[in-house]
Write a structure and sequence with these properties.
The protein is mainly alpha-helical. 74% of the residues lie in helices and 3% in strands. The protein has one domain (2-262). The protein has helices spanning 2-19, 23-34, 39-63, 69-93, 108-128, 146-163, 168-178, 183-205, 213-234, 243-262; strands at 97-101, 104-107.
Length: 265
C-alpha cells in the first residue's frame, strides 16, 4: 500500500502542476486509506504538504506573470481567517460521535470523510457537467463583486479547515467566474492562495510535535517530482482537456469513500 501511496503522491503533484487543482483533494483519502493516518491528523498533514507543494509550484507562475496578487489578497484574507476559525473553534467543537442511527453511530472521523466524499463528488460533477467557459489568455478588465468574493473566500476557507484540502477545485471556478481572470492567471493565483493559507494555518494550529515528519517528507518528495512533471507537461498539453479524466477519478473515489465508511465495516 505504501508504494501505491507514493505513486498517488506523484499523480497529486502532476495534477497540481498541470491544472492547478484536483491534487489536494486526492491527498486526504491517500493519507487515510493508503498511509493509515487518522482523518483528524490527516487534515493537518494535508495542509502542510499541499501548502509546501503549492508554494513551490507558484514560483513558476510568478516568474511568468500569471499571479494576480491583488485578487490573491482580497480572496485570501477571508479564506485564511475562515480556515483559522474552523481549525481553532469549529473542528474541536464537533463531538466524537456526531449522530446515531439505530444501532449505528457516526464518528467524527467518519463524518469528516463523508463531507470530503461529497466534496469530491461535487468537484467531479462540476468538471463533468456543462458549466462556465474558460476565458482566453487575454486579460479582461476586472469588475469585482467584493462582498461575494469575501463570502466565497470565507466559505472555501471553512471547507479547507474542516477537511484539509487546498481548495483549488473551488478557488479556480470562483476566480474564473467572478474575476474574469484568464485560466493560467487563475491557476497561478489559486496556487499562491492555497500556499499562503495552508502554511499560515498549519504554523499557527498545526500541533506538529507528534507528526511523522519522515512520512511527510517522503510524500512531499514524490509530490514535488509529480509537480515538476506536471509543469513541464503543461507547456505541451492543454490541461483543461485532462479534467474529465480527473473528474471521473474523483467521482469513483468519492463513491468508494461513502461505501467504505458507511456500508462496509
Amino acid at each position: 500500500m505504501l508504494i501505491f501511496g507514493f505513486v498517488c503522491s506523484i499523480l497529486i503533484g502532476i495534477s497540481l502542476g498541470l491544472i492547478g487543482s484536483g491534487g489536494s483533494i486526492i491527498l486526504m483519502p491517500v493519507l487515510v486509506y493508503l498511509f493509515s493516518v487518522n482523518p483528524i491528523t490527516a487534515t493537518a498533514y494535508s495542509l502542510f504538504i499541499v501548502g509546501f507543494t503549492a508554494s513551490i509550484g507558484s514560483i513558476n507562475y510568478f516568474r511568468k506573470g500569471f499571479i494576480n496578487l491583488y485578487i490573491a489578497l482580497i480572496f485570501g484574507i477571508p479564506s485564511v481567517l475562515a480556515v483559522f476559525f474552523t481549525r481553532a473553534f469549529l473542528l474541536p467543537a464537533i463531538p466524537s460521535i456526531v449522530f446515531t442511527h439505530g444501532n449505528s453511530a457516526v464518528s467524527k472521523e467518519s463524518f469528516l470523510m463523508m463531507i470530503f466524499a461529497l466534496l469530491m463528488i461535487f468537484a467531479a460533477l462540476r468538471m463533468i457537467l456543462p458549466g462556465f467557459k474558460v476565458k482566453s489568455e487575454k486579460q479582461n478588465q476586472l469588475h469585482l463583486n467584493y462582498p461575494l468574493i469575501f463570502f466565497l473566500g470565507a466559505l472555501e476557507g471553512t471547507v479547507t479547515g474542516l477537511v484539509g484540502v487546498g481548495g483549488g477545485f473551488l478557488i479556480i471556478p470562483i476566480l474564473l467566474m467572478l474575476t474574469k481572470l484568464p485560466i493560467k492567471s487563475a491557476v497561478g493565483t489559486s496556487l499562491i492562495i492555497i500556499a499562503s493559507k495552508s502554511l499560515i494555518v498549519f504554523i499557527v494550529k498545526g500541533n506538529s510535535d507528534s507528526f511523522d515528519w519522515y512520512l511527510i517528507g517522503q510524500i512531499i518528495i514524490f509530490t514535488l517530482i509529480g509537480l515538476f512533471v506536471g509543469i513541464n507537461l503543461s507547456k505541451k498539453t492543454d490541461g483543461i482537456k485532462l479534467k474529465p479524466l480527473l473528474a471521473w477519478f474523483l467521482l469513483i473515489f468519492g463513491l468508494y469513500i461513502i461505501i467504505k465508511e458507511f456500508f462496509i465495516k
